[in-house]
Known about the structure:
Elements: E1 11-14, H1 24-33, E2 39-44, H2 56-65, E3 70-75, H3 83-89, E4 93-97, H4 104-113, E5 117-122, E6 140-144, H5 159-169, E7 174-178, H6 186-192, E8 196-199, H7 201-204, H8 210-221
Parallel strand pairs: 1-8, 2-3, 3-4, 4-5, 5-6, 6-7, 7-8
Bound molecules: D-xylitol-5-phosphate.
Amino acid sequence: MAHRPAGKRIEVVPSILSADLGRLTAQVQEAEAAGADRIQVDVMDGHFVPNLTFGPGIVAAVRAACSLPIEAHLMVERPEEFLSAFVSAGATLIEVQVEATTSLYRTVQTIHQLGAQAGVAINPATSVEDLREILPYVELVNVMTVEPGFGGQKFIPGSPEKIRRLRTLSSSVEIEVDGGIDASTAPLVVSAGASVLVAGNSVYGYRGGVAAGIKAIRDAVG
Ligand code: DX5
């Protein structure tokens, strides 16, 4: 059982990257019915990461399918060019990669002006120290626990230590983890200070189905 951050509800956020896209609406509604806290939409442009995925149209489809908060995780170059399109489509939180923009402060301000919450995501090789200046301005930090670009990858073992370092920089920012999160890795990251768990394969690829996948993670973190 994980030692969870005091009074913090642990949120489970299915990532539709691993969903059956031919049944997207049903897959999103299954997650909502099973108690998911948010839905994550992984946006990849084939440049920042070597994969191509979803645009604002998919966010609109998820919006129409459920009433949960939607995170648009922008793994794209020049994310500032796409912010309003994703907020208009229904995203309630926009995450940009710190490595992808030269004007992070302005980008975060713009996300807030558009009425959405702002998050920053960092790749495995990026130091949490690089976030020191932007931390007071964002609601969430997504610590990538795999190299971004694909679902079903193995969790990077040094991630809990990195999360602990981030928690020393800010006691209030929400810490999200993303990549290789399942019933065995979730307790490690929650004990380190994370409270938002993105899960793709361990929910949409779980042998017992979506509800059982979410339950397995919740049971593991207690
Ligand atoms: C990877 C994405 C993740 C991915 C997680 O680049 O950012 O959100 O969907 O998938 P799993 O949980 O299968 O590692």
